[in-house]
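Researcher: Structure for this, please.
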Amino acid sequence: MDLESTDILLMSKDCKPIRAHQAIIAARSPKIREMIISTPSQSLVRLDDINYEQLKIIIELMYTNKCTLPSNLTSDDVENLKHVLIDYGVELSEEQTTL
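Model: Predicted structure, token format:
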């Protein structure tokens, strides 16, 4: 990712940031799009219900339509991640229907 061209900072609940491109993030998540619209002067979006590891996976999915799950994820972690994806409206492609 070209960090110089990023225009939004996503902050996980454990206060670890990830820089991203607003247009991509807004296009992939209706919930984050609403957060951006409600505070247009802010370039920081706090995601108080997503931890950093989940956020990294979600961002990878938003950008590439694929994700690499760390081998240390438990089945509970995967289920929680699925719920977060549903809550944020991030759709999986046909190939990604199973996390």
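Researcher: Any notable elements?
Model: The mean pLDDT is 90. Residues 52-64 form the longest helix (13 residues).
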